[in-house]
Design a protein that fits this description.
The chain is of the alpha+beta class. The chain has 2 domains: 196 residues, Fructose-1,6-Bisphosphatase, Chain A, domain 1, CATH 3.30.540; 126 residues, D-Maltodextrin-Binding Protein, domain 2 (3-Layer(aba) Sandwich), CATH 3.40.190.80. The chain is built from 7 helices and 15 strands. The strands form 3 sheets. The chain has an 8-stranded mixed sheet with strand order 4-3-5-6-7-8-9-10, sandwiched between helices. Strand 3 and strand 4 form a beta hairpin. Helix 1 packs antiparallel against helix 2. It is globular, with a radius of gyration of 19 Å. The structure holds 1,6-di-O-phosphono-beta-D-fructofuranose (FBP) and magnesium ion (2 copies). 1,6-di-O-phosphono-beta-D-fructofuranose binds next to strand 5. It is an enzyme of class 3 (hydrolase). This is Fructose-1,6-bisphosphatase class 1. Belongs to the FBPase class 1 family.
Length: 339
């Protein structure tokens, strides 16, 4: 089947506009901004080794993490593209301490959408040519259009998301997103600079045999997680499972959604709330996972029901094939009945 027979992302966005509750074309323009920014970042990622974008900037972000040059560059590219589209009134990013109010154009304050982004996910893999990603989450503001954007516009439960997705910059570059009507994946044809619908209606299999967790932290894991890892490794029934861990959330999630599996970044004795950020990592992946028939919790509670209190708060994260997440939760509830 030649590229031409695949529907393009642009066509798909327009086609699906009617399915969308608030369809006024604004979300389509917002998604187009993400599409454009992803192509610009993709070009930089592809030539990272020769484009002087390898290595650290020498600053730390609010999470206390060393910012990579590509973290900062991707952040600038996405903020620029989103700010130019007159549909976004505010942006929050992993790389910015506070949210940004967009006032780059006269109507910005009338815009209804806020975007939360992890501009470059899997930063530890940039310098070693392993796939990385971008994660985005979109909400309607809660404050009145025409009034200043406020923190509450961003501190919304995941169930309020109107769209979410990721870009994976891997052996091929893909955009995968949902607006609440299933999950679809589009592959970039770099020669044409066009995304084509390559993975319609993506689904997690009910169960799988891949588990993804950084076992290097094993001694610091809660007992429930240690018990689940032992369960995965036991010679029994369809086990032992295969361990796969890329160290880029987007890439581990993407593989598990295609092959069936579970990704866990639990709390540890050093970081009791885990590592991943609720608003621009966990909520968008949870929306995608649930739309693809999977499940996503903090080991006990549905991620998208968690009430956010801070822009950069972290939560433990259990996400993937439904039955596998249920099993992991069973071990957590048995080992930590008080939680
Ligand atoms: O190296 P660790 O502790 O296993 O953490 C890896 C995890 O951290 C992350 O890199 C955090 O995301 P950022 O790179 O956007 O900060 C995830 O992509 C990944 O799954
Ligand atoms: Mg990340
Ligand atoms: Mg990041």
């Amino acid at each position: 089947m030649s590229e031409q027979s695949f529907q393009t992302l642009g066509e798909f966005i327009i086609d699906k506009q009617e399915d969308f509750l608030y369809s006024t074309g604004e979300l389509s323009r917002l998604l187009s901004a993400i599409r454009l920014a992803s192509k610009v970042v993709n070009r930089q990622v592809n030539k990272a080794g020769i484009a002087d974008i390898i290595g650290k900037v020498g600053n730390q972000n609010i999470q206390g993490e060393e910012q990579q040059k590509l973290d900062v560059l991707a952040n600038e590219i996405f903020i620029e593209a989103l700010s130019q589209r007159e549909v976004v009134c505010g942006i929050a990013s992993e790389e910015n301490d506070d949210f940004i109010e967009i006032n780059t154009h006269s109507n910005a304050h009338l815009s209804k959408y806020v975007v939360l982004i992890d501009p470059l996910d899997g930063s530890s893999n940039i310098d070693v040519n392993v796939s990385v990603g971008t994660i985005f989450s979109i909400y309607r503001r809660v404050s009145e259009p025409g009034t200043p954007v406020v923190l509450e516009d961003f501190l919304q439960k995941g169930v309020n998301q109107i769209a979410a997705g990721y870009v994976v910059y891997g052996s091929s570059t893909m955009i995968v997103y949902t607006t609440g009507n299933g999950v679809n994946g589009f592959t970039l044809d770099p020669s044409l600079g066009t995304y084509y619908l390559s993975h319609p209606n993506m689904q997690f299999s009910r169960t799988g045999n891949i588990y993804s967790i950084n076992e290097g932290n094993y001694v610091h894991f809660p007992q429930g997680v240690k018990d689940y890892i032992k369960f995965c490794q036991k010679e029994e029934e369809d086990r032992p499972y295969t361990s796969r861990y890329i160290g880029s959330l987007v890439s581990d999630f993407h593989r598990n959604m295609i092959k069936g599996g579970i990704y866990i970044y639990p709390s540890t004795s050093q970081s009791p709330t885990g590592k991943l950020r609720l608003l621009y990592e966990c909520n968008p992946m949870a929306f995608l996972a649930e739309q693809a028939g999977g499940k996503c919790t903090d080991g006990f509670q549905r991620i998208m029901e968690i009430e956010p209190t801070e822009l950069h708060q972290r939560v433990p994260f259990f996400c993937g094939s439904y039955d596998m997440v249920e099993k992991a939760e069973e071990f957590m509830k048995n080992a930590h009945p008080q939680s």
